Amino acid sequence: MSSVNKGGKRAEKARQTRLRMLQAAGELFVERGYGATPLQDIADRAGVAVQTIYFTFRNKRNLLKEVVDTAIAGDDEPIATMDRQWFREALGAETAEAQLRAHVAGTRLIMERVAAITEVLRIAAATEPEVTELWPQGPDPRYTVQAAAAEALVAKPGSRADVPAEQAADVLFGLLSPELYLLVVRDRGWKPEQWEQWVFELLRAQLCGS
User: Fold this and answer.
1) Are residues 108 and 49 in the same domain?
2) What is the tens place of the pLDDT at every residue in 84-107?
3) Engineering a disulfide at 46: which of 24, 81, 191, 207 sits with its beta carbon 3.0 to 4.6 angstroms away?
């Protein structure tokens, strides 16, 4: 077997081990909370030695950041949300309503992965301020995404002429928030599909013409 093949197999094995650790960490952080989850328990669930977690992520805070980033993306590829295919396709829709429908559908998939871990992050940051230092300070990345979507949406046929891009961005930012998603899906027992249809209809009324 060539050294290239050996190297490729080792790299893939390391990647799969990393993903197992991230999955285990995400599950336990949501089940127990960040502060109440020892790294040893994450290692046990992932089937690795705790030293492997330290070697890969160095500490628990970095592990949390990787869990959040991977949940947002849906994979471990370093591709920003606005460069993702689903987002580019939504921007390319011909009408405001078509873009909005695609945007809400794509956001729902993200919320299914990330809403609960976002709540974990919020609580962790309140008790361990160093957690927030892992992300660049500045505009909220989620707002940046919604602002880009709003800019495209208000320029399309079917958008409301009396709603400027900044207001549209605020509406998207508020209604497509993880807090609202958790309120109706986790706390009130809605199905994600119900949330998607409901929030689409709300946004259509706010952002699209009759």
Assistant:
1) no
2) 999 999 999 999 999 999 999 999
3) 24
Q: Are residues 91 and 56 in the same domain?
A: no
The answer as to whether 24 is a domain residue is yes
Gap between the terminal Cα atoms of the chain = 65
In a domain, 67, yes or no: no
Q: Would 70 be classed as within a structural domain?
A: no
Amino acid at 164: P
Instruction: Name the E strands within the chain.
Output: none
Q: 85-91: which pairs have CB atoms within 8 A and are 24 or more residues apart?
A: 87/145, 87/149, 90/149, 91/148, 91/149, 91/152
Q: Let me know if residue 72 belongs to a domain.
A: no
Do 120 and 53 share a structural domain?
no
Token pair for 140: 């909220």
What is the number of helices (H) and of strands (E) in the chain? 10, 0
Tens of pLDDT, residue by residue over 163-191, are 999 999 999 999 999 999 999 999 999 99
